[in-house]
């Protein structure tokens, strides 16, 4: 196992100002995190999903009955702190957490965090814009989990955790969602035996995850996403399409209930792309009987992923709630 990528892009990321905070503190953006530079979308999408989970269903929950509301700077920072803590604590099996940071870069500012959290310099650095806090948070998650555990959970110990152009591996994304650095998306463990004495073990998701994942590659027939990821504890999914990770979520857990007849609901999509139409939403009617043709490449990626979870649903852009654009931008959803 190698943390670095094969082309040395790890050092490039350390020297690149990819902060976790980008976009989150903008007044006009409720709770979105932007990808300010290429590569860290997997880490940022996972953090974004945990932030949403904290705001909608956690200790920091807000009243979202009338939709997503604008939050104060203090509320955003507190949700981000709880989200990052949740990721680290889960990676450390609820026993420990290790934080990686640059020396001599910590600045205490008691007014910058919140009225509840005590300043320790760590959150302040991690949430300061124009610094490489994203890669240091990734290192924190990796070290908290432990390299030996990585080797035990991966199918191939020669894999790189940071790939070409700085993209993080599926193992890293799975670790940030489930606490396990497994490389696959299906449920449980699969054993392959060609008839000889050797058995190949492929490791998937070990149990129901707090946050789920949907993949365009399943729609294209190239992988299988198991029920653990399709039916998470909370209605929040990371969406993987064309090497870009984004976030889908709903405001109510009722959409996860297995009912014969389910009412239409709204799914929100954050694509994480700075200075683009990053926020869109869709009206989902599970009983719409609108199953698309297999491998229809003309559909936006987000709609394809939604159909892997609700195969027969009708999916319509909810133009009225898209504050940043007059119409849905299909190019963005295919990023």
UniProtKB/TrEMBL annotation:
Q: Which GO molecular function annotations are given, in alphabetical order? A: cysteine-type deubiquitinase activity; K48-linked deubiquitinase activity
Q: Which Enzyme Commission number(s) are listed?
A: 3.4.19.12
Please tell me the species this chain comes from. Argiope bruennichi (Wasp spider)
Family, per the entry?
Answer: Belongs to the MINDY deubiquitinase family. FAM188 subfamily.
| Class of the enzyme per the UniProt entry, highest EC level | hydrolase
Alphabetic keyword roster = Hydrolase, Protease, Thiol protease, Ubl conjugation pathway
Output the superkingdom of the source species. Answer: Eukaryota
Instruction: Kindly give the PANTHER family that the UniProt entry links to this protein.
Output: UBIQUITIN CARBOXYL-TERMINAL HYDROLASE MINDY-4-RELATED (PTHR12473)
Q: Which reaction does it catalyse?
A: Thiol-dependent hydrolysis of ester, thioester, amide, peptide and isopeptide bonds formed by the C-terminal Gly of ubiquitin (a 76-residue protein attached to proteins as an intracellular targeting signal)
- Biased composition regions of type Polar residues, renumbered to the chain: 316-327
Which Pfam families has this protein been placed in? MINDY-3_4_CD (PF13898)
- This one is known as Ubiquitin carboxyl-terminal hydrolase MINDY
Q: Which GO terms describe its biological process?
A: protein K48-linked deubiquitination; proteolysis
Q: Which SMART domains match?
A: DUF4205
Q: Which residues form the Deubiquitinating enzyme MINDY-3/4 conserved domain?
A: 18-323
Instruction: Give me the ranges of the annotated region Disordered.
Output: 316-335
Task: List the InterPro entries hit by this protein, alphabetically.
Answer: MINDY-3/4_CD, MINY3/4
What role does it play?
Hydrolase that can remove 'Lys-48'-linked conjugated ubiquitin from proteins.
